[in-house]
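Most newcomers find our protein records easier to grasp once they have seen one. To make this concrete, we reproduce a full record directly below:

…
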Amino acid sequence: VVPDGPALFLSRMDVTTDTLSATFEGRFDAMAPAAEGRLTVTGADLARLEPLTRLGLTGKLDVTADGSMTPDITIAATLDATTSYPALPGTPVATLLGSSARITGAVGFSDAYDRVTLDDLGVAGENITIGADGSLQGEAVDMNLRARLPEIAIVVPELSGALAVDAVATGSVGAPTLL
């Protein structure tokens, strides 16, 4: 830790537990508050999220996020994450994603977390790619969505061929209009 005026420059901060390892490198100003840097988390066990999600999600997650936080609590991060053996019981997630999936794109939070923006946020698995661009603010949604499935028989054995879906979701989060 190196002082940089009222801020601290963290050349490296490591946290290691029996289930994950995390490293932060960057600058933190507790007076502002503001921060910028890189967070790397490896080996996170998705099953540990069970108390929050109650979905039975399993697998491992590795994440690198380059980001910043400004005094008005605006957070911006560019993500690059991979999952190993992701699964969600009762769904075709494991079949669609395969043994690993990659998550990339940018996410932003602002207006005291009331606004979320997605910029080319995507998930690419062995048998599907999904993407989103747009924003959520309060109960309002304005989002461009896309999904590509090279072979629909993976999900519906009675069908064959590729599936491409492009949609725009606008209006209320609870009852969006899909175009």
